[in-house]
Amino acid sequence: MAKKEKLVCYHCGLEMSEAETVWFDDKAFCCNGCKTVYEILNQNQLQQYYKMNDMPGIKSDNVDENIKQKYAYLDDPEIEKKLLEFNDASTKIVNFYIPNIHCSACIWVLEHLDKLNPNIAHSEVNFPTKNVRITFNGDKISLRQVVEILASIAYPPLISLDDMDKDKKKNNKKLLYQLAIAGFAFGNIMMMSLPEYIQSEGYWIERFAPLFRWIMFGLALPVVFYSAKDYFESAIKGLMQKIVNVDILIALGISVLFLRSSYEVISGTGTGFFDSLTGLVFFLLLGKYFQRITYDYLSFERDYKSYFPIAVTKIVDDKEEVLQIKNILPGDRLLIRNEEIIPIDAILMKNTALIDYSFVTGESLPVEKHIGDQLLAGGKQIGNFIEVEAISNVDNSYLTKLWSREAFHDSKIVNIKSLTDKISQYFTFVILTIALLAGIYWYFTDGFSTAIWVVTAVLIVACPCALALSAPFAFGNMLRKFGYHQLYLKNAQVIESMSKIDTIIFDKTGTLTSQEKYEVAYEGIPLFDEQKSMVKAMVKTSNHPLSRLIYQDLAEINIIHPDKTEEIIGKGIVAQLQDDIYKLGSASFVDIEHENISTQVYIAKNNQVLGKFVFTAAYRKGITQLFKKLQKKYQLIVLSGDNDSEKPILKKLLPKNVSYYFNQSVHDKMDFIQNMQEKGKVVMMIGDGLNDAGALQQADVGLALSENTNVFTPSSDGILKADKLSHLDRFLRLTQQTKAVIFTSFAIAFLYNILGLGFAITNHLTPIVAAILMPISSISIVIFVTLLTNIISNKLINSNL
Amino acid sequence: MIALYLTIFISIIIALIFLVLFLSSVKNNQYEDTYTPGVRMLFEDEFGAQPDGKELKKTEKQNNNQN
To answer: Fold for domain A7-159?
Structure first.
């Protein structure tokens, strides 16, 4: 098979990378789910589809010994209680997040868990959020066994510290309720108010008008007191903080509309403006709803708790005990197994560790550590189990201390006043002046009641419906467009912040360099083709990331079959071909002096070192052009936690006026940004690992870069797919253009307002004028803004792709 | 024209019924996941209701009841 061809899953047809491919029956599958479905269909020729428990390999009692130990902590009643969603005598319900869910075969397999084990009553997958909800019989099967079944069919749930503090409030239904009620009332009131618009007198109207008016009054009540509730709350909050926000104007408009309409109905003097009132609330809520886009599978709020396990194994007198993370004390001896995360700063006590710090630094190649070395919290052990001794507790670890800093406790929205709020400040002032002047004029010419009438009319018509709608629709639409092009922003506010930045700070490892692509260079005595073939054969069966890289590098080489190969986990690979013994692995494995400069793998033949493979992270494509484009407008800075060995390369690659700072610790990065901000800079930070978490939080806009949206990113304002980094300049330009669109729409909104004010001041604002003017202005603004944002985003993003 | 009282009353009641239906469907999480049910339906269709499967399901239900 040609290597360059795109790999496609045999079952579900999804594209996949070579690293995650599951091979079975000479066919490639994207995941074990697809493989299982294929297996079942193939072996049973579609006949006995439901007899899944006869399948080899996925039997529930066939649980790997390694998996078994890993979930021992789930037997702890306290942990179990916290994880369960529902806990009755026998029925238990648990909801797991399973990152591996990605195709329809996954849904199929996970929803047939009851066939694997009869004590599982029901399982239901929520695909967008990658959750599975399992109902099981607690008397017959433990939570631990359920998790083991999941793990054994290659869907290990992710159980992290985060699951332990459960108060995930879901507030997103309220808006839908409010919107539904407002829409319901709006529609019915429009119908009810129609007769009086068509005919103003006659027997019919006289007889039925009161009924219609009272029904409208009744329908408007829940709209004002429930649907529009948030506007009043926000207005009061604003007033208390002495901030004039747009909600004050809206609340004022709604209350004046309601009071005047109620007065008209109660006194029997008119029909009121109930249609305009409910229409206004409906459109406003619609705008809110449009702006709220949730990316179910992404989370912008993750801290270290989402990465860390709930419990670890503690060794007491040679016996294993389950210990909750929060109870770890300095001096505790802990056992860390393959693929487990070290939750605490510790000293390595037993075995050689191979630690993957990719969560933390973005560097995906593992680091070798020896007995006595200090291990920082957040690393993941690969290979054999290790034993460590804790030297701190969880909250005091080097990394976790970051989260106790201030920036994580106050929200940053307060700093930047939104565009709409800024404009409505002046707007409010102008409107109140106009209302007052008009009131005074009419008081002297036509008496008090007309004056009140005119003042209320001005306030009604000036209610900044169009003003309040343009920003939500423009930003909401832009959020969608960005999401389509794989920049996922937390909320609309981020677009506005992005348009204001003047400094961009980049992390190096994992951000400017690729997290997946490495350049493999060979140094030493040149290898013969036969030796190359040998190396390829040795790394073929190994799952070590460096082995995969070497294998990919030797793609063109033919493979041979050695007589014997053995992988010694955490050290290297030994193989025998006839009389020659080949060794491939770390420096200590081939018995030479350890050099800790770059990541390398040595090759030795019969105890003589031939040379080494050196791995260097490849820089992402397009960053040179990106920096060239960005430097015209922004100050660019590279902030790295590594030493400055790559500085010359970066200097060659990037424009001259980029500044570089190396050896920056987690805390340094955060302080650096704080310093810049104190100097008046508006900073955007682009990073990837947990070590950028502080900087991402501190920056005005923090974007997390992610190779794969299935993988965790630290809490941020937005997540950018790594291969779209080169489009950053376009995204930034779009945010500015969006702002221009909003300004234009404000101008149109003002025209409508002037027109409406004309009616109001001259005391001509009848309910029918309001009923026509207000929806037209709202709808035309919405259409204008949506169309224009569509046009600019399509034009810019699609150009030269 | 007295009938108008009745018809208006009825029309609002009917509209209210739909509003309540909508609100209850939101409350019952019908809008939480709009993707998976569609896929689930296709699975059941793809393999059809197999006689075997049905039997198995039945016996399993019985098992569960016994529990």
So the answer is: Alpha-Beta Plaits (3.30.70)
